[in-house]
Amino acid sequence: MAHKTIVEDDIDVLVVGGGLGGTGAAWEARFWGQDKKIVIAEKANIDRSGAVAQGLYAINCYMGTRWGENNPEDHVRYARIDLMGMVREDLLFDMARHVDSTVHQFEDWGLPIMRNSKTGSYLREGRWQIMIHGESYKPIVAEAAKKSADKVFNRICVTHLLMDDAKDNRVAGAVGFNVRTGDYHVFKSKTVVVAAGGASNIFKPRSVGEGAGRVWYAPWSSGSAYGLLINAGAKMTQMENRIVLARFKDGYGPVGAYFLHLKTYTQNGLGEEYESKWFPELQKMVGKEYLDPEVSHRTHRPIPTCLRNHALISEVNAGRGPIHMVTMHAFQDPHLEEVGWENFLGMTVGQAVLWAATDVDPKNENPELTTSEPYVMGSHATGAGGWASGPEDVSPPEYFWGYNRMMTVEGLFGAGDAVGGTPHAFSSGSFTEGRLAAKAACKYIDDGKAKGIRVSDRQIEERKDEIFAPMDRYKVYRNEIVAGTVSPSYIHPKQGLDRLQKLMDEYCGGVTVNYMTNEKLLNICLKKLKIMEEDLDKLAAKDLHELLRAWELRHRHRTAECVTHHTLFRKETRWPGYYYRGDAMKLDDENWHVLTVSRRDPRTGEYTMEKAPCYHLVDQNEEKAPAAAE
Amino acid sequence: MPTFVYMTRCDGCGHCVDICPSDIMHIDPTYRRAYNIEPDMCWECYSCVKACPQNAIDARGYADFAPLGHSVRVRREEEKGTISWRIKFRDGTEKNFVSPITTKPWGEGIPELKDVTGPNRDMRDSQLLYSEPKYIRMDEGGLHTLESAGLKMKQGVYY
Asked: Which domain-ending residue is among A337, A371, A405?
């Protein structure tokens, strides 16, 4: 197959990934760069891509400052508590002070947001969540991005960032291929906003067959946000902070609306409340500062998500499963029943299908819950991602190097899952981060920082050979065997994915080992990942679709490697319920109240790990953090 | 429920191929109709089901945990601004739901930012985004800052 080279030149802002972060970046970039060239490269079709492709029934990050509900710092404290202290509070504060303007725009654009008929404000599901009819959330924000962008390239799998050959550590664009035509695409750009996705399918899923598609995070979230950044030599942070979700069993349907709005609750297989009995022991592991049920009860301070997971996991291990969500009371109310079902139809249709298939009507029966396999992402109750600069009016010196949301590579910005330390951004916060990154990228160009970028033909040609190598390999070695998928000379992407999932599961704290790992296991994990990388050079792709899977696998593998390095570095159990370091089962604030930062040297493949200080928002006059979020 | 395509309804138009976020709806070269080439990478997002003009695509619950004999059908009507669902349980129970998908004629509420008045120097140097601060709060105040909130950033262990 001949692969035509198509060059898109003179781009000012290249947005990689057209999900919520990317659409926000493209939309906003047009305001700050009215004469600038804005281009989006999207792996699928921007109208239905990213994690919000099937819609959402809630916007989980909205302050409601307009209605006197919350201030940005309240949300920062909430995220801090939920993530056991490990967050970038400058980035969180910045996102939270802008996010309402994003949501108000969405409403202007036609997104149906439910209203509280008494107060006129948005209908709250919980303190931070508002309820929407969001089936068309993604097409609506895509429409906005398309209005702002000069060009949208759909079906382009971006594989690598281009680097400036004139100046070290400066970005120069990106390359990839069209998954339909097989054309090689070169995007030469002054700045790049990486808004690609986090990673599902890195750890072995609980499902064994078709059901592997019903992962909690979208199966097309292939860790490209991390693969692209790490390979470009950008610093990463909090990559050990994978997330495990307590969800409806098998369908992984969301529980937020059930807990918060429908007031459903959980019980063990004997019909008993089980969470609180695990808390005394858990308190010894993490300290009273992080888990104080009495204070939580009195002030509505949330119990961190990971610690609630811990109780669920422990109860099941004690033989008192399954855990049930008690829906039978709430669902007697026809309005609440409707909310319960529409919640799934709006964002996880598969859960509705599963209940229909198994005759589970939550009005008559309490459905089962389980904890998922781990996921690596940065916009839910977890904060993996790139080490990005914060805004100049908030960030301390260690967190600031010139441009908001710029990575440690010049001209390279991030949004959504790509930015580390910013959990609880969700859809609206990711869009907001895109807007912030776009404004900063325009400023970077206007300041003359992108002058004299040079990309050699050699760099472009080498990447092209590398990208299409799996197809060449298939062509050469296919006839070595009669038929089938077993070859001594290559592996298919699916076979590689199976290996990655198995080794991450067994050595890095997956579901079959109850999220347990330790130093020895992690070192074996790294060794196996290294050997696997040699086999990734022998990936074979029989067609363009398999070539897409091959590159997704490479991004997942790089993400997994970084996760393992970080998990090894942090010698403590910071988030019981997400994962456990068996050789360091306690939370250790004396040594590990820090953010973990890594950099992989693109030339040698070696990782350097460091600790970065963890700053918190405190009252100006007092040396004490203000009262915890209620 | 990975998706599948009914042979007699599909006319091979390719709308599903165009929209699938997972790149798994492909046209079969022999039958010239669409099918799901990789069910274990199907999220059941229903993007293809909603996009199919022939209602030829349906979903069957994932074989590793969902028994046969159910269906969840959908009709998305952009002109009407609604989405309608019909759930059929294995035991025959039916549930129907209708929700709005938009409150405005498609795309009309979204301005062209290349035509609005551009930012001046002060705005560029400020922390404001497009349309702010009016979209943030109703009172006279501007964007929140550490100062306005009486806060500072401090290293150490705080809860």
From this structure: A371
Interface check for A53 against chain B (CB to CB < 8 A): the answer is yes
Instruction: Give, in words, the CATH class of B3-100.
Output: alpha beta
What pLDDT score was predicted for residue A38?
98
- Touching check for B86 and chain A: CB below 8 Å? no
State the residue range of the domain holding A283. 246-371
| Same domain? A464 vs A354 | no
Q: Taking residues A279-297, what's their average pLDDT? A: 94
> Residue B135: its pLDDT value, please?
74
**Dihedral, A375, A376, A378, A382 alpha carbons, nearest 10:** 60
Question: CB–CB of A517/A580 below 8 Å?
Answer: yes
Calculate ∠ Cα A275-A278-A280, nearest 5°: 125
Please tell me whether residues A361 and A475 are part of one structural domain. Answer: no
**Is the same domain home to A361 and A267?**
yes
A574 pLDDT tier (thresholds 50, 70, 90)? very high
Domain ranges for chain B: 3-100, 111-145
Q: pLDDT category, A630, cuts 50, 70, 90?
A: very low
Domain membership of residue A620 (yes or no) is no
Q: What is the pLDDT of residue B23?
A: 98
- Which residues of chain A neighbour B84 with C-beta distances below 8 Å? none
Q: What is the pLDDT of residue A629?
A: 44
Band (B1; pLDDT cuts 50, 70, 90): low
Q: What pLDDT, on the 0 to 100 scale, is given for residue A297?
A: 84
Q: How do residues B97-122 score in pLDDT, each as one tens digit?
A: 999 999 999 888 999 999 999 999 99
Strand order of the sheet with strand A368-371?
A246-248, A368-371, A323-326, A265-267
ipTM over 0.95: yes
Output the pLDDT for position A2.
87
The answer to whether the Cβ–Cβ distance between B22 and A89 falls below 8 Å is no
Cβ of A167 under 8 Å from any chain B Cβ?
no
CA triple A487-A489-A492, angle to 5 deg: 60
| Domain C-terminal end among A340, A371, A402 | A371
Q: Is residue A444 part of a domain?
A: no
Residue A627 is predicted with a pLDDT of: 52
User: The tokens 């908001």 sit on which residue?
Assistant: A404
d(CA A282, CA A288): 9
Q: Is B78 helix (H, G, I), strand (E, B) or coil?
A: coil
Please, which residues 40-59 of chain B have a Cβ atom closer than 8 Å to chain A?
40-47, 59
Question: Do A363 and A462 belong to one domain?
Answer: no
Catalytic (active site) residue B106: no
Distance in angstroms (rounded) separating the CA atoms of residues A439 and A25: 8
Beta strands in A447-528 (DSSP E): 516-517
- Provide the CATH number for the domain around residue A302: 3.90.700.10
Task: Evaluate if pTM is beyond 0.90.
Answer: yes
Alpha-carbon distances of A445 from A439, A448, A502, B103, rounded to whole Å: 10, 5, 44, 37
Mind telling me how many Å the CA of B78 is from chain A's nearest CA? 9
Residue A466 and residue A355 in one domain: no
Residues of B in Cβ contact (< 8 Å) with A292: none
| Touching B: A residues 415-454, CB under 8 Å | 432, 435-436, 439, 443, 446
Q: Is residue A498 part of a domain?
A: yes
Over residues A317-350, the pLDDT tens digits come to 999 999 999 999 999 999 999 999 999 999 999 9
- pLDDT at residue A67, rounded to an integer: 87
> What average pLDDT does the segment A68-88 reach?
95
Do the Cβ atoms of B91 and A593 come within 8 Å? no
Of B19, B22, B83, the CB nearest to A219: B22
**Does any domain span residue A258?**
yes
Position A237 scores a pLDDT of 98
Q: Are strands A184-194 and A171-178 parallel, antiparallel or unpaired?
A: antiparallel
**Exactly one of B9, B23, B32, B43 is catalytic; which is it?**
B43
Total domains in the fold of chain A? 2
Other beta carbons within 10 angstroms of residue B20's beta carbon come to: 28
The reply to whether A356 and A479 lie within a common domain is: no
